[in-house]
Amino acid sequence: MNNKKDIHILGIETSCDETAAAVVKNGKAILSNIVMSQIDSHKRFGGVVPEVASRHHVEVITAVIEEALEDAGLSIEDIDGIAVTEGPGLVGSLLIGINAAKTLALVHDKPLIPVHHIAGHIYANNLVDDLNYPLLALVVSGGHTELVLIREEGQFEVIGETRDDAAGEAYDKVARTLNLPYPGGPLLDKLAQEGKPNYKLPIAWLEQNSFDFSFSGLKSAVINTVHNITQRGELIVPEDLAASFQESVTEVLVEKAKRAMQEHNVTQLVVAGGVAANKGLREKLKNVLEEGHGYKVTIPPLNLCTDNAAMIAAAGTIAFRNKKFASLNLNGVPGLELESM
Amino acid sequence: MLTLVIDTSTSTSCVALTKNGKILTEYISNTDKNHSETLVPRIDTVLKNANIKPKDLSRIIVAKGPGSYTGVRIGVTVAKTLAWTLKVPLYSISSLEVIASSVEHFHGIVIPIVDARRNTVYTSAFETVNGKLNQLNEETHVSIEEWAGIWKKSNKRVLWIGSDVFKFKDVITEIMGDQAIFAPEYLNVPRLSKIEYILGNRDEENIHAFVPEYAKLAEAEAKWLEAQNNK
Ligand SMILES: [Zn+2]
């Protein structure tokens, strides 16, 4: 049949420090993708301040949505559904996007689609590649480190997660130890490219069959290493320490992803979240999984790894097809669990 | 002319709908638990009860604060989005003026307050003249002792108003004695249908750029500024 109508979903994302809106066609084609980053404002505090983030969101929310529609060349009447991040995230930030989305849904009588932020990160991959189920997702960001098994579209099973710090969190903390400015993660990655993993740092494998992660021990080991070397009056080589840290993190991420793929007979890995931008991780995933085992590895481009609304619209399109709608009393859920959608 | 009025700047939730200045619906609740959850469904109900479609609205008026940070943000976000997507003008009014407007027929000084915690209040001062409110100073954030002390020195009798007044009644009385007057409880609830009347012919807001009136910097920002000044 050729008369199947195209689905246009407007996505809205305000879970942390990015105000974003986007229009996606059929869950695949990005018609617009507007991201207003607040990072310059939060830099002075050395991290995201929730109250400041909420204030920025209110300031730009309607302008960002308008730009997304204009860029897509569509009016709100052409939109089939309004997808918005329900959680997890900062509650004061979430509710700005949610209340804007609810208002649009009310006025234009459109379905309101609640989206889990991590489901958004995972389905960012749908914007760049075809997805073959069962699928494994490696979610790595400032707030998350998870292995998610997706047996079929829209079904999520978290098979492993961090027991303490998220990978991105560990990057930021270690970056601070090395006196790199906020946000330190990307700078640490850059530094690691120039060094050799000469420092001996631990890898937390945990129990033999566990797909869980732990990064707090590694973070402490870096701090201790810096302390001990400085005590001896020697100088640390930041490039090498960064490379050693990166090696420890990526080794456990890639190895556990590989084992999970073998155990669950999965042949495609999708990577999601801000740390997917990490060059060291990308290279190792490609080397070990693609070249080493013939698996397919999908990693979205940088602008789709960090928080954006195209990913919310992409995930929202799947929920739209399954008619998973919310009523107008939708509220932000800061600790929302990743379940089926 | 159909006007929708929104005020979620305190724990009281208010939505009003007027037609050419006449009230169609005025909704007031002190029991709505969470503005983020309830405001949009409430607007839906208010419109449906009056058999009005959102697209019939001709303008939006919102109480812009100061008050609860989250509360004013929800009201302002919904108001901005409504005005922008409906392509109708957006007007705003100080949440403190809304509170003061309950007693516009009192002759003298009216002080609206909203609890800002740690013995501080968001406040302003108005003088009522022939049923009209003249604002004497900008919205501010001040300790209740300091504020009551200032008005004690004025030697005037002043009327304190707002649903948080009861929390500060003792300290105000202690400082001001019988210079302090308190309104009966029913006047402490904001009446939104009055907003249209007191709005007069103020300018409309620039919808995209419109932000709440917080009357206070975010704590992290205040500390950061202080650190800069001490450098
Ligand atoms: Zn994210």
The proportion of residues in beta strands of chain B is 25-35%
Compressed to H and E, one letter per element, the order of chain A equals EEEHHEHEHEEEHHHHEHEHH
If you average the pLDDT of chain B, what whole number results? 94
Distance between the termini of chain A: 27 Å
Number of strands of chain A: 10
Helix content of chain B: 25-40%
**Bound molecule types:** zinc ion
Query: Stretches of chain B where pLDDT falls below 50 for ≥5 residues?
Result: none
Please report the number of helical segments of chain B.
Answer: 7
The best one-word shape of chain B is: globular
CATH topology of the largest domain in chain A: Nucleotidyltransferase, domain 5
Strand content of chain A: 15-25%
| Assembly context of the chains | heterodimer
| CATH architectural category of the largest domain in chain A | 2-Layer Sandwich
Q: How many strands appear in the DSSP assignment of chain B?
A: 12
Classified in CATH, the superfamily of the largest domain in chain B is: ATPase, nucleotide binding domain
What is the fourth-level CATH superfamily of the largest domain in chain A?
A: ATPase, nucleotide binding domain
What is the distance, rounded to the nearest whole angstrom, between the alpha carbons of the first and last residues of chain B?
55 Å
The CATH architecture of the largest domain in chain B can be given as 2-Layer Sandwich
Largest sheet of chain B: 7 strands, mixed
